[in-house]
Amino acid sequence: MFYVAQLFSNEKLSTSDKFEVLLLGANTLLALSFSVLLATVLVCYPLSYLFSFELQLAGHVTMIFSATLVKIAYVCRCIAQYELHKEVR
Q: Where are the membrane-spanning stretches (predicted)?
């Protein structure tokens, strides 16, 4: 949380602090986008009989965007871990 507060202050962040902020943001985005992806898969496939056609259609569109965000967040996470000399996995 300290890094996020520094991000909005006038102080300059060091390079490692910037990658710590990137890692925090990427981890957060990864968790949120994966949760949305999981929810849309449930809406669109096993529980589809409970939802209207319009909601299923919105779910399919949202599934594409959330899967894309999962991939982008993972790449950002790998970049931050590499630059912080942590194990990239």
A: 21-51, 57-80
Domain ranges of the chain: 15-84
CA distance 38 to 59: 11
Question: How much is the pLDDT for 7?
Answer: 63
Residue 57 phi/psi, 5-degree rounding, is -65, -45
pLDDT given for residue 89 in this prediction = 80
What is 32-88 written as a DSSP string? HHHHHHHHHHHHHTTTGGGS-HHHHHHHHHHHHHHHHHHHHHHHHHHHHHHHTTPPP
Task: List, in order, residues 6 or more apart from 3 with CB less than 8 Å away.
Answer: 13, 17, 20, 21, 24
